[in-house]
Amino acid sequence: ARAHxxxxxxxxxxxxxxxxxxxxxxxGKGNTVLEVIKSFEKVVGINVNYAISSRRKxxxxxxxxxxxxxxxxxxxxxxxxxxxxxxxxxxxxxxRY
Length: 97
Known about the structure:
Blueprint: H1 2-14, H2 33-44, H3 68-74, H4 82-93
Helix pairs in contact: 2-4
């Protein structure tokens, strides 16, 4: 949310609208799907029903956001852990933010 507020402030500084830009807001390091599931289960206390299977045709091996531009343009860097993000997403989804 902080990065989005900074982006809106930056748009306001640019003057003429409409203006848009694309800025990745990831952590800069990847997490596996299983790491995300396990983190979610830990902070929420709910077991997720999942199955491990073979990679599907076309699935990428790894993907993550390069957040260099977020720092350059917005002076933003990630501050939260994966567990923090999972809890925040859960609270938001349940209307408890």
